[in-house]
Design brief:
Layout: E1 2-9, H1 14-30, E2 37-39, H2 52-77, E3 80-90, E4 93-101, E5 107-112, H3 118-122, E6 139-141, E7 144-150, H4 157-165, E8 170-174, H5 182-196, E9 199-203, E10 205-206, E11 218-220, E12 226-229, E13 235-240, E14 249-251, E15 258-260, H6 261-266, E16 292-296, H7 308-316, E17 321-328, E18 334-336, H8 357-360, H9 381-388, E19 393-398, H10 407-419, E20 426-430, H11 432-441, E21 447-450, H12 458-464, E22 469-473, H13 479-487, E23 491-495, H14 500-508, E24 513-516, H15 519-533
Helix pairs in contact: 1-2, 10-11, 14-15
């Protein structure tokens, strides 16, 4: 596979910036059908010193000829082509974006720069969107996962770690970095490739043929080896890559089995120690100690079940786990609601699966609990993950409207978990039919056997389905069942107990996690027991 970076001169005046865009157009026209991936540098439609009052009009004028050329090049060369430019995304709002086109010249996606330096903000480039949570963008074309960074983004190792978690095959870096020495640019991009376990294709601007700063378009492989670099030249840098999906495999510590390099780092990360956001992050499902108290449908005695209010109350009080129920709407959106019928939890009637999300949003999901929650809307799984990812363990009770569970539904859930970095803070609780699908699609996510398939046979069902947990339905459990589960390495949940004294008794009998609607009193009682045991 042939990777190409277009390197053009950085201009000191608007007049010379027009010439630099001319150079970009001319170089694109030189690309041929042997090319597979093409990348242009940052601000390809404004590659120079341009006064703030001129910048937007200048960018618009140059975009009108540059972007059609990019699309034509993608079609003519049958090449995946990405261009960074200053784009008007809404009337009067201009952002620094990288837009990527497939081999037919169709826009496949775009990335909006996350980190803007002060000088760029002072030019009037929009950055308000950067205050909202946005997982690093991944655009998949022809089975290749593309990640993106733009110039200043490359300095933020915590953002790079999140990008690595999304498992790109190629990271496209459009950049200026006009003041950075060549040796600094080398080690930054080698480190980027090594940590993301991906190829890096970087395109930049030349600061002059003899310059020792800026420039340095390059290709780096997942081992951190520079395969090609362009120094301060102007032109097209190209590099052949045998396998674009190649991953660097290394031993899992000395003498261990081979694992992907990014996994070697991820498995040891302790983000709950990192500030500021890390202070809200708790250890994952495999690390968080037992016993635990799980807030059933959130703190559902003080707020409507399966609502942001109930989940937020539980998380704010330190709940190690929250349980949420997942069903799918008519338009295939996963939402947090327990009952298939709407009558109990809203002012609507009928089945959840018979309504689109837009239709469900019109219903009141709060008044049935209290008039103080009037107007509360149903929430989606994505909204829960965006707000509470990694702040608690999610006991995700996946429900089905029929006897079968579509694979595409499970795939959608798993994709959301990876998107929001939540896969390490969740386990699935469901019937054997659903858990079988879960194991096929995401075997790395723990599974918990529901009592719905047989209250007294639950441990045997868990063993046969290779589950890591069971969720007993009290009082259908006894010491023998708990001991059998533990003997097979299976953790034991108990649904449910709202009595603090009863919860303590269950923990003393060996239950690992108690689900409760009455979170705070039960958690306080359990906390006293844990303190006595020194946990």
């Amino acid at each position: 596979m042939k990777l190409c970076a277009v390197q053009i001169p950085f201009a000191d005046t608007p007049e010379n910036a027009v010439k630099s865009v001319d150079a970009a157009v001319a170089l694109l026209q030189q690309c041929d059908a042997d090319t597979d991936i093409i990348l242009l540098p940052e601000y390809s439609n404004a590659p120079g010193r341009i006064p703030a009052e001129m910048l937007k009009d200048f960018a618009d004028a140059q975009s009108s000829r540059l972007i059609p050329c990019v699309i034509e090049t993608a079609r003519r060369c049958q090449a995946i082509t990405a261009v960074n430019f200053l784009a008007e995304v809404a009337p009067g709002e201009y952002r620094n974006i990288t837009r990527i086109f497939d081999r037919q010249g169709n826009c496949a996606g775009e990335f909006h720069k996350q980190h803007l330096p002060v000088a760029e903000k002072n030019l009037g480039v929009s950055y308000g969107y950067t205050y909202d949570f946005r997982p690093p963008e991944i655009v998949e074309i022809d089975g290749i996962r593309f990640g993106f960074l733009i110039c200043y983004d490359t300095y933020f190792t915590e953002y790079i770690a999140h990008l690595a978690y999304r498992k790109p095959d190629v990271v496209l870096v459009s950049s200026f970095q006009r003041a950075e020495r060549h040796d600094v640019l080398r080690f930054m991009n080698r480190n980027l490739a090594f940590n993301c376990n991906s190829f890096v294709l970087r395109a930049s601007v030349s600061m002059g043929s003899q310059a020792v700063v800026g420039g340095q378009s390059m290709v780096v492989d997942p081992e951190g080896q520079i395969l090609a670099e362009f120094g301060s030249k102007v032109g097209i840098m190209s590099c052949e890559v045998p396998d674009i999906h190649y991953k660097y495999m290394r031993s899992n510590s000395f003498g261990g089995k081979l694992i992907p390099n990014d996994l070697f780092v991820t498995q040891g990360r302790t983000p709950w120690c990192y500030r500021p956001a890390g202070s809200m992050t708790i250890p994952g499902e495999k690390e968080l100690p037992y016993p635990r108290i799980c807030a059933h449908r959130g703190f559902s005695t003080v707020a409507p079940e399966n609502s942001m209010a109930a989940f937020g109350a539980a998380v704010a009080l330190g709940a190690e786990e929250i349980e949420l129920d997942i069903r799918f709407t008519k338009d295939h959106i996963p939402v947090s609601v327990h009952d298939e019928r709407l009558e109990k939890v809203s002012n609507g009637s009928g089945a959840v699966s018979d309504f689109t999300l837009e239709e469900l949003r019109k219903l009141d999901f709060g008044s049935c609990f209290s008039e103080k929650f009037a107007g509360l809307q149903i929430i989606t799984l994505e909204e829960v993950l965006a707000k509470f990812s990694c702040h608690t363990i999610l006991n995700m009770h996946i429900k089905s409207a029929g006897k079968t569970f579509p694979r595409e539904y499970m795939q959608k859930i798993v994709e959301l978990l990876w998107k929001y970095d939540s896969a390490g803070h969740v386990y699935f609780m469901a019937t054997p039919e659903i858990l079988t699908v879960a194991e096929e699609i995401a075997p790395e996510i723990p599974r918990c056997m529901s009592a719905d398939a047989g209250k007294w046979d639950i441990v045997d069902n868990a063993i046969s389905c290779n589950c890591q947990k069971v969720q007993f339905f009290y009082p259908y459990c006894n010491k023998e069942m708990i001991d059998k589960a533990h003997a097979h390495g299976i953790k034991c949940n108990c649904f449910y107990c709202d009595d603090p004294a009863g919860a303590v008794e269950l923990l003393q009998h060996g239950i690992d996690t108690i689900l409760t609607n009455n979170y705070l009193p039960v958690a306080l009682a359990a906390g006293k027991l844990k303190n006595k045991k020194g946990k």
